[in-house]
Amino acid sequence: MKAGELLPKFVKSTSALMAGIATSCLTLSSRRNFRASWLQYQTLHGRTTPGKASDLRSFSVKAEVNYVNGEEAKQLIADKGYLVLDVRDKTQYQRAHIKSCYHVPLFIENDDNDFGTIVKRTVHNNFAGLFFGLLFTKLNPEFVESVKTQFSPDSKLLVVCQEGLRSAAAAKKLEDAGFTNIACITSGLQSVKPGTFDSEGSSELENAGKAGLVTIQGKISAVLGTVLICAYLFSTFFPEQAEKLFQLAPSS
User: Fold this and answer.
1) What CA–CA distance (Å, rounded) separates 211 from 219?
2) What CA–CA distance (Å, rounded) separates 189 from 170?
3) pLDDT value of position 60
4) Sign of CA dihedral 158, 164, 166, 171
5) C-alpha distance from residue 52 to each of 38, 44, 62, 75, 212 (Å)
6) Which residues, given as ranges, of the chain have pLDDT below 50?
7) What is the pLDDT of residues 189-244, one digit of tens each?
């Protein structure tokens, strides 16, 4: 075949290929209250109009999680009708939680008695448990199903935890399960200003993650700091009395 005959065929084949690629995928994007949400259609044989299920290669719907601060979260509850889903463990929930919230822990206490778990639990309790008052936990295998029994997929949920990590993980699981209206507080309840939400429990929401020796150390540091400040002020405003006290102190 001559070169003059190959060129028209090559141009025709290339044009057909590009047309097929251009019409094989249609992406519709929309942005509203959430950072991004989109519908993606991928069709067979260059058809871009969705029809029967057999005509579609895939059809997916995804709504990204809306990350907000404490004040924005409060507005979502008051103005948009969002319900609060607390996914922390039971100890942090009992220390402090938002009033009228729902509690479905993403992690539950791990009381398994196999050898490996016993070793890990012992190490945990001697370090993280002792210093930070954290439970030795495992992923709650019934988390998604428990949420589904209380909420429909179109429910507006504000998912909260203490640091923001568990709520992000929980939101991803719920998103994969079909929930489309999900928001999380960036950095968790520890970042919320006092008084933002009405809460219940023995501590403030931002301090619900603090326990163990860390809490005791914090109290000791606060007492020592207060004593040092008082001593400094006393020596500044009453130098003569302070000098007499130092003179009365036994020397080594």
Assistant:
1) 11
2) 15
3) 41
4) positive
5) 20, 11, 21, 41, 60
6) 3-4, 6-7, 10-11, 14, 17-19, 21-62, 212-214, 217-218, 252
7) 999 999 999 999 988 999 887 764 445 544 555 555 565 666 666 667 677 776 76
Spot the catalytic one: 25, 101, 161, 184.
161
Coil, strand, or helix at residue 134? coil
Give me the residues paired with residue 84 across strands.
158
With DSSP H G I counted as helix, E B as strand and the rest as coil, what are the percentages for the chain, rounded to 5?
45, 20, 35
Rounded Cα gap, residues 219 and 221, in angstroms: 5
CA distance 114 to 138: 14
Please give the Cα distance from 245 to 99 (Å, whole number): 52
pLDDT of residue 209: 79
Tokens of 88: 């922390």
Length of the chain: 252
The letter for the amino acid at 211 is A
**Quick check: 187 and 168 in contact, CB under 8 A?**
no
Residues 156, 77: Cα–Cα separation, whole Å: 9
Q: DSSP strand E in 99-203: where?
A: 102-103, 107-109, 137-139, 156-160, 181-185, 199-200
Query: Angle at CA 176, nearest 5°, toward 164 and 34?
Result: 60
Give the pLDDT confidence score for residue 52 in this predicted structure. 40
Q: Which two tokens stand for residue 31?
A: 């942005």
The question of whether 161 is a catalytic residue gets the answer yes
Tally Cβ neighbours within 10 Å of residue 149. 9
Beta-bridge mates of residue 61: 39
